[in-house]
Amino acid sequence: MIKAVIFDIDGVLLDSFEANLKFFQTLMMKVGYPPPTRLGFAAVFHLNMMEVIKELTKSSSADEIKKIWELGRSREVEYDLDLLLTPDGAVEVIHRLSESYLLGIVTSRIRESVYEVPQLRKLEKYFKVVVSYQDTENHKPHPEPLLLAAQKLALKPEECIYIGDAESDVKAARAAGMKIIGFTKKQLNLADACTPTFTMLPALISSLGSL
Length: 211
Fold this sequence. Notes:
Layout: E1 4-7, H1 17-30, H2 38-42, H3 49-57, H4 62-73, H5 90-98, E2 102-106, H6 118-121, E3 127-131, H7 144-152, E4 160-164, H8 167-176, E5 179-183, E6 193-195, H9 201-209
Parallel strand pairs: 1-2, 1-4, 2-3, 4-5, 5-6
């Protein structure tokens, strides 16, 4: 029986591609590296900030990568919140789901950036737990972030369902023993279900919870 629904942020609760692209273009130029193209950034969009920096700089210096990461974390480089969008019906769906399930967030975002987003700050009251980049040693597709969320919710992994949009989300959920719904227009291999429509999530969660 499903008792909790856990959401990813980037690509699920937020359409953040344009904001993230602009942020990393500005960050790379500030530290003297070529800014990513739109096509190049699409290949790294689902990685956490540390991994994106490694891929974009190709630097072998851990100190250099950490320095750039700290620069990004400090928001000395502006993150354009106005470019962020939420899926149609997201507020209503989150409210509806909160009446039947515990809700949580597992994200590769840094902790500071979760509720700096006005759209998410309005929904903060619905989420019982947030697991961000700094909360675990290992990151998706490793199951540790999802397992930590289940532990914080005092639930077994099999009592939770994860909503993600990338293959790494599917791998993490499968490794954690959770069901997974892909919020995406494409098919994710091994996902229990996929939908590009946020308002379809309650029906899918209900159907999977009865299996």
